[in-house]
Structure formats: C-alpha cells, structure tokens
C-alpha cells in the first residue's frame, strides 16, 4: 500500500534525509538508496549463495536461548561478514559506513558496527510481530532493511507492517511498506514493533543492525 511518508531524496543527500527522518520520527524510507544495477548484482549474489545451500533456517532469540521457531519466522538467512563483504556488496557496505558515521555525528548515537544477513522468504513465509532489540540488551539500536526484489507488485503481498510501540508516534501507524528493490528502511530498533506478511513470490532482502557496545 501507499504510505504517507515522503520517500524522494530532494536536494539533500540520501544520508542527510535518513538522519533527519530518524531525528524527527525514528523511521525512514529511502527509495533508490541503491541503484537498480547494484540491486541486481546483490540479488544475483544472494541467489548464487542460496543455490549453493549457504542459507539456514532463521532462528529467534539469542545465545543459549536461540531456537528454531518456524511458527514465528520461517525465512532463510545467510549472515554476512561486514569486514569482507565481497565485490557485489562492497558499495552498499561503504554506504552503510557513511550512514553510520552521519548518524553518530548528528545524533550522537555511538553506533560502532553493523551486523547483517541476507534473508529469503519463500512464498507463504512470514515473520510474526516482534521488536528487533532483544529485551535486556543495548546492542541493536538502528535497523536497516534493504530490499532486493525486482519489480515488486503491491498485490504480491510481503509487506513490512509497522506498528506503534510504547512511545506515541506521529507516523500513520500501522503502516505497510512494500519490499521494492533499492528501497532502504531505517528505524530506531526499540521504537517499532513490526512483522513481515506472507508473499506470493520469493522475497529477498539484506537486513541488519547498527549496534552499540554492550
Ligand atoms: O524484511 C523485513 O521487512 C523485516 C525483517 C525483520 O523484521 C527482521 O529480520 O528482524
Ligand atoms: Fe525485525
């Protein structure tokens, strides 16, 4: 569905826009954060790894309590090495580094690293409503989701549905965001519960988090 947020880049840089959105509402949608050519390079890389069997069923929780809970989430993920992202992912990881520094410079968040994975949701797969920030930890502060889907149609499902959290928000919540290629969704992890609705086709993304030291 259409959302009420502006997604164009205007005259300021994409980084400035995201920082301003995070400051104002805690939530940002940036279309064309990554060019179509880059999206297709990244999607090809993900699909190559998927065919090689490198993806694993996603787990929920962390540390000793990490477990397979397909009734909560049933996507497949491949964790990425942000030190050695490889040629297809390098431009995006460099942009993430710029974004991390801009957020720190303007919002004093002290973000020190990015951890992320490719995620592939086969048709019908979903992820129930959740917060990205684990209870009792300080680590995951900002969520960044880049969609890698070519020509996604609204009637194919697979929206990211974002809800109001404990803090009141002036965003039009709940809101559904279509996973269209090149679109980057960035938000303050502890503010917004969210879910992934089932789709009719494979749904591919690169999801990750800027963390602070725990
Ligand atoms: O892919 C999305 O739109 C959201 C994924 C998500 O919520 C997560 O991996 O924590
Ligand atoms: Fe999430």
Descriptive overview:
Its cofactor is L-ascorbate. With 214 residues, the protein is α+β, with helices and mostly antiparallel strands. It has 3 helices and 11 strands. The strands form 2 sheets. Strands 1-9-6-11-4-3-2 form a 7-stranded antiparallel beta sheet. The mean pLDDT is 92. The structure holds 2-oxoglutaric acid and fe (ii) ion. 2-oxoglutaric acid binds at residues 119, 127, 132, 145, 160, 179, 194, 196, 205, 207.
- Molecular shape: globular
According to CATH, the fold-level topology is: Jelly Rolls
Rounded mean pLDDT is: 92
Structural class comes to alpha+beta
Give, in spatial order, the strands making up the sheet with the most strands.
Answer: 1-9-6-11-4-3-2
Secondary-structure element series: HEHEEHEEEEEEEE
Please give the count of helices: 3
Major sheet characteristics: 7 strands, antiparallel
N- to C-terminal distance: 37 Å
Strand content: 25-35%
The tally of domains stands at 1
Give the C-alpha Rg.
16 Å
Q: CATH architecture, please?
A: Sandwich
Summarize the amount of helix as a percent range. Answer: 10-25%
Any key phrases for this structure?
single chain, 214 residues, alpha+beta, Jelly Rolls, seven-stranded antiparallel sheet, four-stranded antiparallel sheet, globular, binds 2-oxoglutaric acid, binds fe (ii) ion, peptidyl-proline dioxygenase activity, vitamin c
In short:
The chain is of the alpha+beta class and 214 residues long. The protein has one domain: Sandwich (Jelly Rolls), CATH 2.60.120.
């Amino acid at each position: 569905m259409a959302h009420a947020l502006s997604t164009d880049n205007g005259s300021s840089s994409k980084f400035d826009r995201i920082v301003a959105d995070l400051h104002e509402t805690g939530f940002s949608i940036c279309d064309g954060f990554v060019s179509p050519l880059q999206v297709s390079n990244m999607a090809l890389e993900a699909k190559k790894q998927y065919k090689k069997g490198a993806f694993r069923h996603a787990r929920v929780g962390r540390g000793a309590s990490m477990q397979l809970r397909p009734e909560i989430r049933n996507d497949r993920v491949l964790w990425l090495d942000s030190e050695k992202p490889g040629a297809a992912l390098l431009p995006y990881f460099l942009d993430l580094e710029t974004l991390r520094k801009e957020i720190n410079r303007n919002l004093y968040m002290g973000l020190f690293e990015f951890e992320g994975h490719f995620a592939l949701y086969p048709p019908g797969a979903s992820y129930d409503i959740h917060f990205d920030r684990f209870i009792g930890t300080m680590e995951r502060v900002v969520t960044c989701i880049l969609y890698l889907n070519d020509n996604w149609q609204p009637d194919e499902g697979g929206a990211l549905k974002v809800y109001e959290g404990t803090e009141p928000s002036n965003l039009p919540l709940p809101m559904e965001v279509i996973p269209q290629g090149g679109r980057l969704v960035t938000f303050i992890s502890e503010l917004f519960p969210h879910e992934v609705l089932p789709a009719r086709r494979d749904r591919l993304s690169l999801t990750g988090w800027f963390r602070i030291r725990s």
